[in-house]
Design a protein that fits this description.
heterodimer, A: alpha+beta, 5-stranded mixed β-sheet, 24 strands, about 30% strand, B: mainly alpha, Cytochrome Bc1 Complex, Chain D, domain 2, 4 strands, about 5% strand
């Protein structure tokens, strides 16, 4: 049940239920004379959907028109910076762990290139025995693997990291640069071993075919172990927004290295220090040093419902607190939830499947007493890594650093049921 | 008698199995394993890759490395770069490289600066303004690499190599890293020292 964003008093279905119960009770007492009245004609006592043939379906199915408000939200940009686009997933509306492809977040540095699949080639060159090119038809014949993994932008939750005061926004606006899907593709080791690696090969520069030719340097050992060229997402061919016809995929690593519209892999002996390893995607530590190549996304969790700008429809009563947890290093081992601002914590229930470097759904039943409450979640992964508080995270970094923010997220529930973002 | 015993035993067995099944269905927290991406030994080669000709490699090798690899011939001066900047860059990056709305090219890294009292308000709407090229980038070669492959934003790769050398010279000058008389070419670019390099720490070991 999605909590509505407005307060309407007692929901109408409850009033109707109470009313009909009363009538039934009175009838049972036998107080009211029940002369058998003729039943209403069928058509007049049935809802419209049960009286007509119905409309046609679509070749490519779409959500109900009544769910049209569930969409990605674009970060507003100026005309000059329109190519730099951030589309956030409305996590507060998602259930389960799979983000539908149409709602998967995207960050584009140079908007969406138009790709011609019949002309696209993946080039592999540099410190290899045999420089090779792979067209799509041949690449699609390779054995593939399928993995469920989250993907998160290193700049996710920048507002919480940078703003001195907690911004009153939805979960999607605050932390929506993360999603989870099933990715299917060809392991990079198959392609790199076919090309044959030369002595001294330690890095690979991966480049996309977009306008800005986005590129990142990645360690060869990690690519051989975990990397693959993703061609499918959630069962269908990768969409343009996600890098059609192919993207690099590195489980658990910051979104930026998962190069979309992948077209070139240059095997080399050193990182190239591309623009996205020089300025953005670096962190300034508290001592002024600039940390680079922090590839892994850390342990993180968010309560998806109730969350920012939602309103609990009824004062007091049962609600299920639900959320998502993930770690770029492995599986989630536990999630603890507090409703009193961190004074006490309860172990939330983790829902199967609990997968390596993927969203894990957690829930906790909550009997709300109508008083002010501060809801928080903190996750721990199988390696014992946890989440810092916001102040602990801020102490590690310089004031202007915002990448890799994974502090505990807190929501304040007011006595009027309104939920807002707070720093706790 | 015997029949009742069999029936009773059967009931107990059934209940036992149901109980066992119920207990089995409990664990919601049991971790599920995904198989490894590839087997321990590399698979036999599929052999479907086609040879990549050297001419095609040369055509696409636009990655400029910190040691200067792939830097093309050519040169450009700070003065030439200043003119090009006003024509091609100022509209998005601001007249002095700090006003935005596009990424900040010059100035100190961080929120506060006496020269720009509106910076805090600007950053709220455009967080990219927090990061400065001159303060953060470790190698000058990256300026050449990025301007050539990605700028201007609406017409990437439209600049000549000489124009890119000139703009690189001007951007370095905006950051007080080269004098106003500087001329950038391959050799001069490799001699430029960026403040970001000395401050660099790597979370991934970059040396073997």
């Amino acid at each position: 049940m999605t909590f509505p964003t407005g307060r309407q008093g007692l929901p109408t279905h409850r009033r109707r239920f109470l009313g009909s119960g009363l009538a039934m009770g009175m009838a049972a007492l036998g107080e009211v004379a029940t002369a058998a009245a003729p039943p209403q004609p069928l058509a007049s006592r049935m809802p419209d959907s049960m009286k007509t043939l119905g409309g046609t379906d679509l070749a490519y199915g779409q959500p109900s028109v009544h769910e049209q408000s569930v969409q990605r939200v674009a970060h507003p940009s100026t005309a000059q910076t329109a190519g730099f686009a951030i589309w956030r997933t409305p996590l507060q509306h998602q259930r389960g762990i799979i983000t539908p492809s149409g709602l998967h977040f995207s960050v584009h540095h140079n908007a969406l290139p138009e790709m011609a699949p019949d002309r696209h080639e993946l080039m592999v060159h540099g410190l290899v025995q045999r420089p090779l090119r792979f067209d799509l038809e041949r690449l699609l014949r390779y054995p593939m693997v399928s993995r469920i993994h989250f993907l998160e932008c290193a700049g996710n939750s920048a507002a919480n990291a940078l703003s001195p005061t907690a911004m009153n926004q939805t979960l999607g606006d605050l932390a929506g640069e993360v999603s989870c899907a099933e990715w299917t593709g060809v392991p990079l080791s198959y392609l790199l071993h076919e090309a044959g690696l030369k002595e001294g090969a330690t890095w690979v520069v991966a480049e996309g075919a977009d306008g800005g030719s986005h590129s990142r340097s990645l360690p060869l050992s990690a690519l051989l172990k975990d990397g693959f060229v993703a061609l499918y997402q959630n069962g269908e061919r990768l969409r343009p927004s996600q890098g059609y016809p192919m993207r690099l995929f590195m489980p658990g690593w910051e979104g930026n290295v998962n190069v979309k519209w992948l077209h070139r892999l240059e095997v080399t002996d050193q990182p190239a220090y591309t623009k996205d390893e020089s300025g953005l995607y670096t962190q300034v530590l508290d001592n002024g040093q600039i940390e680079r190549f922090a590839f892994h996304m850390d342990v993180k969790s968010v309560i998806t419902h109730p969350s920012g700008l939602q309103t609990l429809p009824e004062a007091r009563g049962f609600y299920e607190i639900g959320g998502l947890a993930w770690s770029g290093h492995g599986r989630i081992a536990k999630v603890e939830v507090s409703v009193d601002g961190g004074k006490s914590w309860a172990l939330a229930q983790l829902h199967a499947p609990v997968l390596d470097r993927a969203f894990t759904r957690f829930t906790l039943p909550w009997q709300w007493d109508g008083k002010k409450a501060t809801l928080m979640s903190r996750a721990t992964d199988e390696h014992g890594r946890g989440q810092p508080s916001r102040s602990e995270w801020k102490r590690k970094y310089a004031m202007q650093s915002f990448h890799h923010y994974n502090a505990v997220q807190a929501w304040r529930v007011g006595t009027d049921g309104r939920v807002e973002n707070v720093y706790a | 008698m015997r029949k009742r015993f069999v029936l009773r035993f059967g009931q107990l067995l059934l209940w036992g199995l149901l109980l066992a099944a119920a207990v089995q269905a409990q664990p919601l927290t049991a971790p599920d394993r995904q198989p490894a991406v590839q087997p321990i030994t590399p698979p036999p080669s599929m052999g479907l890759g086609l040879p990549l000709p050297q001419a095609q490699i040369d055509r696409f090798s636009i990655t400029i490395f910190p040691d200067g690899r792939n830097l093309p011939p050519g040169q450009g001066s700070v003065a030439q770069g200043a003119r090009l900047y006003q024509a091609q860059c100022a509209a998005c990056h601001g007249d002095t490289g700090i006003e935005g709305p596009a990424a900040r090219l010059a100035g100190s890294d961080g929120f506060f600066g006496w020269s720009d009292p509106l910076r805090v308000l600007r950053i709220r709407s455009n967080p990219l303004l927090v990061v400065s090229v001159g303060a953060r980038w470790p190698y000058a070669t990256t300026l050449f690499d990025y301007v050539r492959r990605a700028m201007p934003h609406h017409a990437p790769k439209s600049l000549t190599d000489e124009a890119v050398y000139a703009l690189t010279a001007y951007l370095l000058h905006l950051n007080d890293l080269v004098p106003s008389t500087a001329v950038m070419n391959r050799e001069a670019l490799l001699r430029v020292s960026m403040p970001g390099l000395a401050k660099t720490v790597s979370a991934w070991p970059t040396q073997p």
